[in-house]
Specification:
Blueprint (H helix, E strand, L loop, with lengths): L3 E3 L5 E3 L40 H7 L4 H15 L15 H17 L6 H26 L4
Helix pairs in contact: 2-3, 2-4, 3-4
Length: 148
């Protein structure tokens, strides 16, 4: 038999586990069907309308496009390579494994979009990948040299 507990808040908790706390198998009890939901939205589930985005906020982000994606990923890779300062101007130590992963993502993006990009987008992606690869190799060399 299933255990039922009703709260004054209107919520009902039904234990539907197959075994009781002593390990014995519970009998299948038929449960009454829950009542149909009210016709209109309830105040508890109704969401307030989204606040409109201020024009100046939209201008700060600019249009979202392929170039924005490339810029985001390349900036992330530069942070991971330790070539850009943190938000407070602090030095971020290089994380070559993460940088390699981000560069790999850009390479996958290049392969998957081959033939579907404009000439400008293709050139931008090639140049970004070239610069990131060279920066990665340079950082790898720096980190492999013994400290003086």
């Amino acid at each position: 038999m299933t255990e039922k507990k009703e709260d004054s808040s209107g919520f009902k908790v039904v234990d539907r586990r197959g075994f009781a706390s002593d390990g014995s198998r519970r009998e299948e009890a038929t449960e009454p069907q829950p009542p149909a939901p009210p016709a209109g939205p309830s105040p508890a589930t109704e969401r307030p309308p989204a606040a409109p985005v201020a024009e100046e906020d939209a201008e700060n982000f600019g249009p979202t496009g392929f170039d924005t994606l490339i810029s985001y990923l390349s900036t992330t890779a530069l942070f991971q390579l330790g070539l850009l300062p943190g938000p407070g101007g602090e030095h971020i130590p290089p994380d070559l494994a993460s940088a390699r992963g981000t560069i790999d993502m850009l390479e996958v993006l290049q392969q998957k979009t081959h033939g579907n990009l404009s000439a400008t987008e293709t050139r931008m992606l090639e140049e970004v990948l070239y610069e990131l690869r060279m920066s990665f190799v340079e950082m790898q060399k720096r980190l492999s040299q013994p400290a003086r």
